[in-house]
# Entry
Amino acid sequence: ILWSGILAGVLAFFIVKPLQQLEKVALEAAKGNIHQSIEIPKSRDEIQSLATAFESMLANLRQMVSSIEDNFQLTNSTVQSLSAESKEALQQSDAIAQTIAQISEGASGSAEAIQMTAESMEDVRMLADEVNAHAVATSGYSQTMITELSRTTNAIQGLVSGIKEIAEGNK
# Structure
């Protein structure tokens, strides 16, 4: 009987220890810390399968978070580019305003001023076309990012629910 008790205690330790480690990592993941790794047990049983599946889930979460960060960086650089082009368009608008003021001051240089205004207007139109093209592209990026964020949010919510179920099942 004594040996049976000792053997049962040792076996229980080898079963409970990996489950406790898995629970610890699952609770950390539920808090948002997905950069931990799980020590996969060497036993070929359900505990190893569960640990392997959970490690795979954490790797997928890390990949999704990385993808979100990459999309954010791309969107951010596009917004900065649009901002720079908007500043350039503002400068062109200021140049047009100055040209118009010169035209109103006198008729002597009106022919030249009109030509400059026409060229500036063409420049502004071309810049406006470029800004519009970038805005359309940014809209596409933003829509893609929103779709990815929504998909990632759904996946994370499902994972957190699964983690909570695992944690509650372990209690």
About this structure: The two ends are 29 Å apart (CA to CA). The chain has a mean pLDDT of 82. DSSP finds three helices and no strands in the chain. The helical segments are 2-30, 46-105, 110-170.
